[in-house]
Amino acid sequence: MAVTEEESSSGRSRKAATNGAHYLAKCVLRSSAILQVVHGHIRSSTSYDVVFGKETSIELVAIVDEGIIQSVCEQPVFGTIKDLAILPWNKKFGAENPQMLGKDLLILLSDSGKLSFLSFCNEMHRFFAVTHVQLSDPGNSRHQIGRMLAVDSSGCYIAVSAFEERLALFSVTKYNFLDMIDKKITYPSETEENAINGGGLQSTSVYGTIWSMCFVSKNSSQSSKEHNPVLAVLLNRRGSFLNELLLLGWNVKDNVIHVLSQYMETGPLAHTIAEVPQFCGLALLFRVGDILLMDLSNAHNPCCVHRVSISIAIPVIEEQNIVEEPFRVHDGDDEGFIAASALLELQDRRPDFHKGDDPMNIDSDVGNVKYIPKYMCSWSWEPGNVKNPRMMLSLDTGEFFMIEISFHPDGIEVNLSDCLYQGLPCKDLLWAEGGFLAAIVEMGDGLVLKLDEGRLDYVSTIQNIAPILDMSIMDYHNEKHDQMFACCGMEPEGSLRVIRSGFSVERLVRTAPTYQGVTGTWTVRMKLMDLYHSFLVLSFVEQTRVLSVGLSFSDVTDSVGFQPDVCTLGCGLVSDGVLIQIHQNAVQLCLPTNVAHSEGIPRSSPVSTSWYPDNIGISLGSVGQNLIVVATSNPCFLIVLGVRSVSLYHYQVYEMHHIRLLSELSCISMPQKHFVKKESTTSLDPTTSSSSTPLPIGVAMGTVFVVGTHKPSVEILSYAPGQGIRVLAVGTISLTNTMGAAISGCVPQDARLVLVDRLYVLSGLRNGMLLRYEWPALSTMCLPGLYSHRTSLGPCSICKDTASLKARASSSTGFPAVGISLSEKTRDNDTVCLQLIAIRRIGITPVFLVPLSDSLDADIIALSDRPWLVQTARHSLSYTSISFQPSTHVTPVSSAECPKGLLFVSDNSLNLVEMVQSKRLNVQKFHIGGTPRKVLYHSESRVLLVMRTDLSNDSVSSDICCVDPLSGSVLSSFKFDLGETGKCMELVRVGNEQVLVVGTSLSPGPAVMANGEAESTKGRLIVLCLEHLQNSDSGSMTICSKAGSSSQRASPFSEAVGYSGEQMSNSSLCSSPDDNSCDGLRLEDGEAWQLRLAWSTTRPGMVLAVCPYLDHYFLASWGNAFCVCSFQNDNPQRVRRLAVGRTRFMIVSLTAHFTRIAVGDCRDGILLYSYHEEARKLQQLYCDPGQRLVADCLLMDVDTAVVSDRKGSIAVLTCSSQLEDNTSPECNLTLSCSYYMGEVAMSIRKGSFSYKLPSDDALRGCESADGMLDLSHNGIMVGTLLGSIVIFIPILREEYELLKAVQARLAVHPLTAPVLGNNHNEFRSRESQAGVLQILDGDMLTQFLELTNIQQEAVLALPCATAEVSSSFKSPHSPLSVNRVVQLLERVHYALN
Questions:
Q1: In whole angstroms, what is the distance from residue 916 CA to residue 776 CA?
Q2: Higher pLDDT, 139 or 1121
């Protein structure tokens, strides 16, 4: 690294350190590790929804008809979820709020110490807390109640347990915000607890560890007040090898809990108890090797009525022993796998009799057969089956079985099916409606299976990239930063993942760059009710071409009848088989022939007729069903045209009405006449329909269209025969920046009507801004009872009341001037002034709005500097970037082969992509075998270097392989010795080349003892050279081949596009058209790369960390020692050790920046060293101020270190350069700022992220703009064991103070406060010292963008919540500017989304 660069960086860092480090943390990819899965009627009484619990977030998904998991909403909870369950709706309770009728509630346990009741608000599109019940103090003590949930099937009772010795029962009375919980009792009580401590009641209480619990079903005809609940608890008493079934009865009237009975049968270990739904008193007791059907109807005398064996019989061969695979103890440095896989390996930690060696079972072997017991990992009941309950089981062998319970006059019969599917053991199962089964796999992708004719068939994948062990960001040679490579999962599901930002699209085909001057694209159907498009219309500056849509895109312009030598302004289908083309001189009606389409007219040439304006040119036009609207300029007219049939194949276009305009129109948009309800596969609000959605007064689909004017304004107009054109609503556009100056370029470029829950208007402006307008609440005509109650959900009722007041205030001020001439009497007294709900800047170029379908509730693509997907069902404005390069035009293309296609025009090429519903994450999977541990990108060869372990190879279990980053194919590998395991690797420069320095372990077992000291082990330090082989036998390699890619898809289009000779090339793996991988690029014949051993040495300890140092050294550590090494004469075969340093405990990480070295001690935290070349000595300069379980570390510069620990925290440590000359060998680092994520970050990388828009009016002439760009190059990216990716962005102090004040208000406002009821500041400050600066929470702050303008003002109007914020913010009583906050957060959202 050049010294000049370092000096510059060091100068900047010292300046930043002087002012203090200020960061904002934003989760760009939420956790994919699913720990719990439940289902219920969450959004409405008729919807069937699934909720994933992910420890730090919850995700609401739907399983669509095709068996694909579609994400509806994902929400951070700002806490740690311990357990969750569904509280079913009980009609006997009723609800004060009609909107909650029939809806189930989600209940959660968390580290907040509260039992939280959540309900989903369709308007805000997120969960809100209904109420909280305090259980214990915040924390994770094993004696605190709040670890496990059990809910009565009728929804009347809830049980909550601690890890051991305590539980609580709750009685639910009704769905009310205040008194939902009627009674509460804790067991044991204080008196009983004192007796237990004295040794008096231990044998009859819950003294021990609670493994499982469930309620015993009662007669469903009884109400909650007519019976006392019975709770079955599976308990492991201390010192016992068997678990005991304890039945507890709650006398609700006397509020006393009694032990009714105890049951323990000699035999295998029981681990789970589950009630049989809809059948009084029955429960299944799962044990290792069998399942017991228990009759608990008489709680005082429980008994087993049926036993089902799930053991496997294997023949016993004489003189041979069956050797079980020993339990593999993870190394102490094993990338945090102990935390990530504890539950998965719980089954392997059970006593030996779980494996068939039960000392109490002396009759297990019959003849020459030995029975090996199996272990039930997860289960799920079939929904809706009340006659013969069926349960699906997943065993530890990966087998799936089904249990069916049937009732006969002779008694109860329990049938166990044959194996239905063989896969991996599942952490959780969910049997959903439609026969679908969601199988959640730990540390690997889950599955969606479908039960069909007695077998389970694979349907789709539930993506899971957890844990992320390492990652590599593509930041070499100015390559694009829109993707990264990550080592994910564990064998057999370990894989290399390509993670991209934005919404996932599958790139199918791309043409050559021969489409210059495209001015517009449209797709047209042949008939109104057709499912797929028939024609693709391309408009150029002086030309129009029509292509057929199907297996081939062929030119059918002459057969359609469009005029080819003009620039088309608009087109569409006016009626079945009748197409309209609008250009500057005329409106042309066309009847295509059967050559262009099979439903065309049987003639040799198309039939065309035209309508011409009188000596005036057309500037805009839009086509609807039986209606055409065009506009002219200079003079400005708005003309309404109709179409009538004169005879067979003879139509006439005629003028029905026209008016004179005061202002020129900038856009026209006409919705379809018939409202088409969105399919359930993509519907975000299942309660929305054409009959239930309230429409504003006077609005009827088919007569309404929206226009944009140069005034500027957006206006809603309607046309009715005999009445002419009326102005229904007007929204003026008058925007100012933070300086109070008017923003230029606010003319609407596009406007669309959207109907989701309510009718509103989206408008894209020519200056890159996106606006949302809504009707005032008083002008909305609602159905009776739908919105008449204001107490539906706390936050929702607040925003509605506020909006209503604002509407009355604004309507009393009068209407703004409209673009339609008042002399035409188009304006009535009931014209509505639209409310501007939300303003967002998404770019600097004009914003085009393109719906994904004709439905008014379809999501919309907003096309500006880059494509964004606007989710129309969301509250306010919610948009996500689409993973595609900047484009000028886009149109949906639906065909039988590609029903959800999109055609982008980018770089003079046509790009056909498809919206990928099956991928909740924009992630591509390369299954390369084993467990990928480390990944590096070699810039010269453009290959990935991946270290793998746990290989299923008889000769070796670990290697380093070269992987093609485009196809995922393994090109070559370097195999370690037998019994050797790779631990770390880094690229180090030697002269003009790079070599790979590798650290390995030669000893089995852990690397570190429990006290932090190193175990007595051996390791190897290796130097490998990456060689380019010209004469390889590998032959020709095609880069675009997809071997190993899980996203493989063949293009449905194989023929030419447009004129002959224009072939579409497959480039689905290309991130952009200018990547070297596009257009079928092939490597040179015989080109290959392989690793060659140059040098190695054995060290007295596992080599756990290596890193490059300066330009010609490298660092390596083993045990508690690390050394500085060099290559003599730039020869990779001659390595010389120069100096050795030692710490107190095991070294787990090494990193360097310029002359500074950071050593990660597994207990003492971060230690900073410097190396003196002349004296060849290492000198310790700084120490960590506290003990820290280091996971990874990164030096941002010589004075700043970023460290993650194994408790889930990120800390930024700084030092002052003035202390360099201090003679003391130990000077403490300063803890500059910290952030508690709740997830362990095993990989930290420096990323270059700019969060400034290409142009921003607020920054023009601003002195801080340059400084902001300077700091943005010090971004930090971390990957966690739960599969999250979090980015930390440095911000200026002024921005920090502003956003800190906003965050404090968001954390307490009902719309944005944490749903778990915990203190946000306390959660993010955990594991941190008092008074340390806190990194801002971007997840909390970005909620501000999801609010409407009125709600944003209400949040900022709150008084300052804490004294800390008041003292830090310069003017705590001065109002905060909404525009300033929005613009700052928009820049973050723009860059990181």
A1: 37
A2: 1121
